[in-house]
Design brief:
The complex is a heterodimer of chains A (245) and B (288). By secondary structure, chain A is an all-alpha fold. Chain A has helices at 2-14, 22-57, 65-72, 83-116, 129-148, 158-206, 213-237. Classes of the chains: A mainly alpha (245), B alpha/beta (288). At the A-B interface, helix 2, helix 4, helix 6 and helix 7 of A face helix 1, helix 2, helix 4, helix 5 and helix 8 of B.
Chain lengths: 245, 288
């Protein structure tokens, strides 16, 4: 039953690939509603009850009531007259976060600044051609990328403009690598759902015959014929136009 | 009509069907051998060594910040790490920052524990879902673990669970593993792992991995599992290179997807050039 429900939801959500439709919206709202409801339950059962309600009501930690008072102060933001009450806790949290930024910056970026000062010698003290080349490449890219973001004076000198231009290219290469990973990540999510459909729903519930290779040869041929038919249909439905010029 | 011209106006839904077919093949076949079995990224090996070197008497904290949306990437990472720790008899605690992820990681842990004959409470615990000011939790657990997590997800006091009953503060933490789709690294590094000198292993989705390399270089991270490929390589390291796992099938499918996308890029560009040269209108059209 759960496998069928899962498969139904997957198909319902993926109908959006064909076009925006009501079936997709229905399953989208089911998912959002379920997730929101589940989060409320889990927050109560695994956070508020053991950490706040039980100690306050059963273990004599009555002072935890102040947590509820402090928390409820946030909601005064909806009252024009009493909004100042919410600003007290908002201010408290903003100060808390601002103080934390100092520490976060120090612990996060200072070690990276240190590691950017690379030695031409390896950790064992040896100087190898490969390592030296690697460090030179690092410094070239590092200086070029930094010069691109250096706005204290105008980039007029050819040495600066060309370095900054090279920096822009290196940044683009970096963004390209990130985008490649994005495609990989999105594909993996789709693969996860396909894996569920094939190995949980089809093999486990719908068709036990799906464990045999012959089954897939037949399905593959049928799918290929369907795909080819669809491709031909769309090709002839929208003939290629000649440009006017 | 030239096939390359037709490709210029191919409906994107045909491409979707083709993607599904291409990806289905490895998932159906489920190859026994992992792809590129001899290729292990240095950061994956470093993560493996970090777990291997967790001293006896210390636990590993598995922080999970993911839910159903990135299950395909993050679950194989979690399972590979859990298998390794069960094998090495390293105790660990799972902590979920996502409500849905709390249930998914619980089911995943139960499944792996059953397969490896591990026992809940003795070998591992699940601390359940946590919400609130994350930096306060991350910082506080290093000072007083039992106060921050007084009970597990089932409401059992930690003092009754042998796996974590002796954990008082950061001194009993052998490593922190951040399995994430949102990036909790910015919390762990400044508030726990760097000040207390605890190794941090980062297990992000593939899209986030590129930006983590400076952290590896500065030794703020002690290893990384780059998406599902990192999980597959980790499986190889723990001796599951010849087992048909979901991660393995996924990585084969991913390789097929890469080839498919490259092929489309080449064909698309060839079609564009051919159409331009022949004076035929290039480019797509509106659909739907």
């Amino acid at each position: 039953m759960s496998a069928w429900a899962g498969a139904l939801c997957i198909f319902g959500i993926y109908t959006v690939l064909y076009r925006e439709n009501k079936c997709y919206r229905l399953f989208e709202h089911i998912f959002i509603g379920m997730y929101a409801g589940y989060t409320v339950y889990v927050t109560w059962a695994q956070v508020l009850k053991p950490k706040w309600w039980d100690p306050m009501t059963a273990e004599g930690q009555w002072f935890l009531i102040f947590d509820a008072i402090g928390g409820s102060m946030f909601y005064f933001i909806y009252s024009r007259k009493h909004a100042w009450i919410s600003r007290v806790v908002f201010g408290l949290f903003m100060g808390f976060s601002a103080g934390g930024i100092f520490r976060e910056y120090y612990e996060t970026y200072f070690p990276q600044m240190g590691s950017s000062m690379k030695s031409f010698a390896t950790s064992t003290g040896a100087i190898t051609l490969g390592h030296v080349f690697s460090v030179i490449v690092f410094y070239v890219i590092f200086i070029a990328a930094m010069s691109y973001f250096f706005f204290s004076f105008e980039h007029k000198h050819p040495a600066v403009t060309s370095t900054a231009k090279a920096g822009r290219w290196f940044l683009m290469i970096g963004f390209g690598a990130m985008f490649g990973s994005t495609v990989m990540g999105r594909m993996t999510l789709f693969i996860g759902r396909l894996n569920y459909l094939i190995n949980v729903w089809i093999k486990g519930t719908v068709l036990p015959e799906a464990h045999y290779p012959a089954f897939y040869i037949v399905v593959g041929v049928v799918l290929a014929v369907i795909a080819a038919s669809v491709a031909l249909y769309f090709s002839f439905r929208h003939p290629v136009k000649k440009t006017e010029d | 009509m030239n096939l390359l011209y037709i490709l210029q106006n191919l409906d994107r839904r045909i491409l979707y069907v083709a993607v599904a077919i291409v990806l289905s093949v490895p998932l159906i076949i489920r190859p026994w051998q992992h792809p590129a079995k001899d290729t292990i990224f240095p950061e994956v090996r470093q993560a493996y060594d970090t777990i291997n070197n967790v001293p006896k008497g210390k636990i590993v904290l598995l922080s999970t910040t993911w839910g159903a949306g990135t299950k395909a990437e993050n679950e194989p990472q979690l399972e590979a790490l859990m298998r390794h720790m069960f094998k090495k008899h390293i105790k660990f605690a799972i902590l979920a920052w996502d409500a849905g992820g709390s249930e998914i990681t619980w089911q995943s842990a139960q499944r792996v524990a059953k397969a490896t004959h591990a026992q809940y409470g003795r070998d591992y615990v699940h601390l359940g879902f946590k919400t609130g000011v994350t930096i306060a939790i991350a910082s506080g657990l290093g000072e007083n673990f039992q106060q921050v997590f007084n009970v597990d997800r089932n409401g059992t006091p930690l003092s009754k669970l042998p796996a974590v009953s002796y954990v008082k503060n950061y001194k009993q933490l052998g490593a922190v593993v951040d399995i994430t789709s949102t990036g909790m690294m910015g919390v762990w590094i400044p508030y726990l792992t760097m000040p207390k000198h605890i190794p941090l292993i980062y297990c992000p989705t593939a899209v986030m991995a590129v930006s983590a390399y400076p952290y590896l270089d500065s030794k703020q991270l002690s290893g990384m599992l780059n998406g599902v490929m990192g999980a597959v390589q980790y499986e190889t390291l723990i001796g599951r290179g010849g087992v048909a796992t979901d991660a393995s099938a996924t990585s084969w499918a991913l390789s097929c997807a890469h080839i498919y996308i490259l092929l489309l890029i080449v064909l698309g560009n060839l079609g564009y050039l051919a159409a331009k040269r022949a004076g035929v209108s290039p480019g797509g059209r509106r659909i739907g």
